[in-house]
Amino acid sequence: MKVADTVATMREALRLVNRPLGFVPTMGGLHEGHLALIRRAQRENSTLAASIFVNPAQFGPQDDFSTYPRDMTSDLAILEDEGVDLAFTPSTGEMYPDGFDTRVEVGALSDCLEGKSRPGHFRGVATVVCKLLSIVRPDRAYFGRKDLQQTVVVKRMTADLNLGAEVVVTPTVREPDGLAFSSRNAYLNPKERAAAAVLHLALRTAARLRGEGVADPRRIREEMEKLIAREPLAAVDYVSVADPESLEELDTIDGPAVASLAVWIGKTRLIDNLSI
Length: 276
Ligand code: PAF
Fold this sequence. Notes:
It is a single chain. By secondary structure, the protein is of the alpha/beta class. About 35% of the residues lie in helices and about 20% in strands. It has a six-stranded parallel beta sheet with strand order 1-4-3-2-5-6, sandwiched between helices. A three-stranded antiparallel beta sheet has the order 7-8-9. The longest helix has 16 residues, at about 120-135.
């Protein structure tokens, strides 16, 4: 595996690769969810690139940028074991050199849900993903469905800016109790880890109610909130039943819908979603 930590060396390494080129952008802290992305990208492409960059621009002042799990040695070993051909590991200065002054802003899709709770988050995501896609120029880029709003925002941006990569969204990978794999699960102590199962329970409740014919999203949100309130270590940030493409909250469910939520488990904020 070739490791490049500058844009120039990454571009040089990419010059003669066999196409199609698949790309998995990550912030490291690699887990089963990332492995699913990497393995899918591996199957569908002749060359596989991945990046590890903890992007300061997508963290707010109250967010966990300084404590975000970082273990470059172990992450690179995982990428190598998985057969990744090229790893891009830029420094913050390489991605945002002195004088950097451009932001990519995707409109309404960035304002609701995560964007409302974390103002500026998607400006940071869109900016870095735009830069990464411009540097790597992949045929396909892979993102996990757990970050549903991120996938919607990235798809919009990629189409609007003609970035030329197909955005592939892969299913959420879960622990046996339903908790979605996330780098932030590493923050949970054993009691919090057990409590975190409530996210998936709430989503399953939403799917069950919908399956029983409930078409009123208010009722579904209420039941999800009630269930989470019974878990003493959990506190709801938001619960949503929305259109999976526009992400607008639904008044009534008469087509595709996605239940999503953000929940604090102690000091750790976790998100998840499920089609219902
Ligand atoms: O999902 C992530 O890990 C990040 O948001 C991404 C897409 C790598 C951009 O920093």
